Amino acid sequence: MAAPKGSPADARQLERRRTLAERPAPTPERDTTGHFPAAARRRPAPVPRQIIPKVAGASGLFFACLKWVNAPSTAVGTMKRGFSIYCDLLRFGAASVVFLAHLSWQRLSGGMLYPLLPYGHPAVIVFFVLSGFVIGYVSHEKETTLKNYAAARLARLYSVVLPAIVLTFVLDRVGIMIHPQIYVLGQEAQPALRMLLGATFLSQSWFGDWALLSNGAYWSLPYEFWYYAIFGAAVYLPGRRGRIAACLCALIAGPDILLLFPLWLFGVAAYRLSKGDALRRHALPAFVATAAAGAGVFLMRGTFVHLPIPSRYLPDGFRVEDFALGLAVAANLLAASRLDFSFGRTGAWITRAAGMTFSLYLFHLPLLYFVAAIEPVAWSPYLRGTLMLLGVPPVIWWLSQMTEMRKGALRSRIAALLDRLPAMTPGLPLETRPGLGESADGG
What we know:
Helix content: 55-70%
Distance between the termini: 80 Å
Strand content: under 5%
Number of strands: 0
Structural class: mainly alpha
Order of helices and strands: HHHHHHHHHHHHHHHHH
Number of helices: 17
Shape: globular
Radius of gyration: 24 Å
């Protein structure tokens, strides 16, 4: 018999319905580098009213950036030795922060170095800006043709990407047989598809979020690849052809990748400004101020205290602080390029350590997972974490000697292959490339 209307039972039922209706839907927790470690890596398909604003916002940013990339520039010059070592120091430092942030995960070390957990993502933002600065430099000073640019970028990526994909698959299969509870098994499903998407840099395109098995740090590589492709098309191909190719690359990349493209271009802008008179008279105060500002934003970004901003037009996990950090890093690089750094004997060690940065970034997570799988569960977090901290970096260094350090040979092979392709002409000389002078069709 149903309870009469207005009875205590009816009131309790209404309260229960109201509670369920007001309860927020659970959301997967992102890790420190911005990817989802939840069981299901694929995001639910957004409804059209969610897609359209994000695509519109990304498109507006993209066309504004494309117009700026094609602006004429006469920047020439060489990079100072001391400043080059400073860039190496930033690069190795950022990679080390990502490594330590992942080492602090509860499922891996038991929580050793847990205060460093939030700082992995801002370290990746530093990588983006540095990458833009370096590409701005090499595109003007070294890689003066499309063939040279493409061969250098592909060799840089695939010298480590392909070994990292194979290593991740092998270690994950063995580690899961030993201790499956360590792994996020949802990320291990459909390994062939995940590796294919990773190798073709499509794992983050159009709201996709396909983890490369346990190698969650791989999420930023598709971003880098499509930034290389868009920039290369806009700068090296003449006129309308370059703009169309850049738009096609952007269409494949998707809105999430494009919305962070300005961060990468901050680095390109810093390089171009470094060849003018900006900050030339007040380089040291500007360097100190931008370093302090960057450190402040970096630390704030790691505290999970975020500035409020409407998220309708933005991808999941987007924070306005990323752009503030990117501006600070770009300004710091600009100021640092005016200074004469002297690192003494430590400079050679810094350069040598920076030579394994890409390997450190891509090899560390599958190795950490595997070590966590074979370590006895009864060990304390400090013992587990210390073994990882001391044992994993030497393995990465050994792997880097067989991969990253041999990218020169791979570059030569890729260049020879590109020479055989009829569509890959030798490229335009420096003075006629769009973005550096007049375009071939006057556009």
